[in-house]
């Protein structure tokens, strides 16, 4: 039995620590600024990355920021002054590339969280957070003991929580005040 198999949680935590220490704090701050300046924030991602983006949209709602998940039936159209934030490890997912191009053509701002800053989505982004993690695609720069894009998806969730902390700091909103926007029909 390998050390990783015997103690997977410490191994995962080491991977997360190594990855997150490489994320540029200035990129987190820039994304927070774009969110504060946006009329409405739209989030998108495919698969598990999409789930992380949905979690972030919920936190934005808790902060009182108008946020929507692209593809939901209640999501309105994007317009000039809005922000589309895409989470994509490769930055090349065809549907997300198309979305970014469409948003840009409507004068909305595009932002991205990706492993590959020079990707198509990365090159369309006015704000970008580079997460140097492994993705499900072969040949990415970081190795991981975890399957496919797990390290990227976990890192993205934590990076987005760091963005939430920046937003709380900038707006002066405390966690207890956010609870007033929490779902209450459950």
Automatic annotation (TrEMBL):
<dbReference type="InterPro" id="IPR046348">
    <property type="entry name" value="SIS_dom_sf"/>
</dbReference>
<comment type="similarity">
    <text>Belongs to the SIS family. PHI subfamily.</text>
</comment>
<dbReference type="GO" id="GO:0097367">
    <property type="term" value="F:carbohydrate derivative binding"/>
</dbReference>
<dbReference type="InterPro" id="IPR017552">
    <property type="entry name" value="PHI/rmpB"/>
</dbReference>
<protein>
    <submittedName>
        <fullName>6-phospho-3-hexuloisomerase</fullName>
    </submittedName>
</protein>
<dbReference type="InterPro" id="IPR001347">
    <property type="entry name" value="SIS_dom"/>
</dbReference>
<dbReference type="Pfam" id="PF01380">
    <property type="entry name" value="SIS"/>
</dbReference>
<dbReference type="GO" id="GO:1901135">
    <property type="term" value="P:carbohydrate derivative metabolic process"/>
</dbReference>
<keyword id="KW-0413">Isomerase</keyword>
<dbReference type="GO" id="GO:0016853">
    <property type="term" value="F:isomerase activity"/>
</dbReference>
<feature type="domain" description="SIS">
    <location>
        <begin position="31"/>
        <end position="173"/>
    </location>
</feature>
